[in-house]
Input
Amino acid sequence: MRDGILAGLILLAAAPAAAAQTGPVPPDGAPPEQETSIGMVLARHAESDCEDPASDHMKRFPGIASALSPTATLFAIPCTASGVNTTYRLYVRESGEVGGVTVLYFATWSKEHGWSGTDLLYNVALDGPRLTAHYKASPKGDCGTYAEWTWTDYAYRLDRFAVEEKCQGRRPADWRRVYPAS
Output
């Protein structure tokens, strides 16, 4: 299982030990410290209810890694995929004094349940410390939920959460904000 994930893992911003690595990481191409981190994360992921990332269906969806600090790396491992939506479970691998792997939990909102927490995000994207998630309730992605977070020292801070219940061709930037409230 590990070789399939290593081959598909994309390093968006490599950790210091892997500073020369960009793009897809070959199975034997990860530096030892990075490979140890990936192995620890995948061992933790194997304990989840997610689909096997090495299955024929899931191996088409790459994992994502991004350095958050000199000692913390974010790993987004695909969990499920259906239609236009892929869920990811996110982990932080801390290699500093405390060390270990932590599953991240995020705020989510729905009309039926209000605010709750989740360990799965839809269609994640990373841009440095910024993380976005976009649940697409239609193939065009013009309805559903959209959220933005920023990494702040040791956790993600929710910056924006928007919803669109009716698929009317509007972009997420124009959806109704539920956080912060409009």
About this structure: The first helix runs from residue 2 to 8. Residues 10-29 have pLDDT under 50 and may be disordered. The chain has two domains: 1-103, 105-182.
